[in-house]
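To: structure desk
From: M.T.
Subject: fold request, one chain
Message: Could you run this one when you get a chance? Sequence is below, nothing fancy, just the single chain.
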Amino acid sequence: MSLSRALRRRSSRRSTSGRTVLLTAVALASAMTLTACGDGDGGGKPSGSAGGNYVAGPTGIATVAAADRKEAPKLDGETVAGQTLDTTALKGKVVVLNVWGSWCPPCRAEAPYFAKVSKEMADGGKDVAFVGLNTRDNSKQNAASFEETYGITYPSLYDPDGKLMLRFPKGTLNPQAIPSTIVLDKEGRIAARALVALNEEQLRSMIDPLLAEK
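Reply: Done. Structure tokens follow.
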């Protein structure tokens, strides 16, 4: 084999190897982005979570002891219905934040439970406020149709680009999947998180202990 032919083959191998490394890097970067309409990490300890100060149960729900909780970020803006909302005004209540999209099958699966529990707690005079974070919907019409279909009566902030989700600071139980549910205690601190679609029992198990806190 001539020297020039050998060099061409070696260069070709380097080029192929470089493309493989680049594609691998792109795949890894994609895997690290927000899981869209998936089950998240199933409750394991994700990167940027609460520094090991939380307990993840078998249902995928993670909880934080009162002494280790961190302040939730201010979430404000326009709702799907065209109103304005600021979650910091809800301090004094347990706040249930549900990240959802009308295009997401697990979101559709859990929506009836959120509609039922939110209505029953409102009718019972419980100090609980439900707030949705609608994301990745390209129109409010799709989100509004979802709310009407499933009987969702509480407000949802319209966050098509997911910018509100990025306000959660590193080192907290932040939303990393769609759907995600985060529950704040009465002082506005992050107390529990689920990265899976919830049923009624699971949802109540995140709320009831916080209602009982003094």
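Reply (cont.): The chain has four helices and nine strands. Let me know if you need anything else for the meeting.
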